[in-house]
Write a structure and sequence with these properties.
The complex is a heterodimer. By secondary structure, chain A is mainly beta. Chain A contains no helices and twelve strands. Classes of the chains: A mainly beta, B mainly beta.
């Protein structure tokens, strides 16, 4: 069965400092990995994805994530945090899709990122 | 349309009433998903549509929940005899191909009183 773990409910960072939001996964076969962000009272917005290729994936708003197969991790990172990055972040995984058997994403519980000035 | 549209954005209903939630996906997106987000919890998968068929409805919590999709486009999630535990934000997402990430709607916040 597929699963995603985000071990931290909340991450606090000072503006200008680097940030990391952790994610580990379990899936049979090769994983497709995603990060989404949710601002208050808004739907989820896509940040980045890993399908294949380079382990370091760059996405929106200066975020990046590193796929580590041996550690089954896909941590989200940003070199310099902004106050406006404060939001709820979700990691998600799916196995390689098989037609008509769904490509549903399994989401982690979310990590609340708070960036203080 | 330009994005995934969900209606209503907010719905307050009395316990025991039926509700219908609507999702209008991005034009041409063949896959459509419903998720539920309860307060303080992650996203719970409900059902997946490929075209008008639902190959995976494993996440529907009970037989009070049903969904349909017509014309490969609009989908309706129906909750019968609503209970207070049904209160949540119901999110719809669509995608063009299974290998792509989803585009989410803004959700319907359902409150059962």
């Amino acid at each position: 069965a597929q699963s995603v773990a985000q071990p931290e409910d909340q991450v606090n960072v000072a503006e200008g400092n680097p940030l990391t939001v952790k994610c580990t996964y379990s899936v049979s076969g090769n994983p497709y990995l995603f990060w989404y962000v949710q601002y208050p009272n808004r739907g989820l917005q896509f940040l980045l994805k890993y399908i294949t290729g380079d382990n370091l994936v760059k996405g929106s708003y200066g975020f990046e994530a590193e796929f580590n197969k041996s550690q089954t991790s896909f941590h989200l990172k940003k070199p310099s945090a902004l106050v406006s990055d404060s939001a709820l972040y979700f990691c998600a995984v799916r196995s390689m899709p098989v037609y008509n058997q769904g490509g549903k994403l399994i989401f982690g519980q979310g990590t609340e990122l708070s960036v203080k000035p | 349309g330009a994005g995934v549209s969900q209606s209503p954005s907010n719905k307050v209903t009395e316990k025991g009433k039926d509700v219908e939630l609507r999702c209008d996906p991005i034009s041409g997106h063949t896959a459509l998903y419903w998720y539920r987000q309860s307060l303080g919890q992650g996203l719970e998968f409900l059902i997946y549509f490929q075209g008008n068929s639902a190959p995976d409805k494993s996440g529907l919590p009970s037989d009070r929940f049903s969904a349909e999709r017509t014309g490969g486009s609009v989908s309706t999630l129906t909750i019968q005899r609503t209970q207070q535990e049904d209160s949540a934000v119901y999110l719809c997402a669509s995608s063009f191909l299974d290998s792509y990430g989803y585009t989410f709607g803004s959700g319907t916040r359902l409150t059962v009183v």
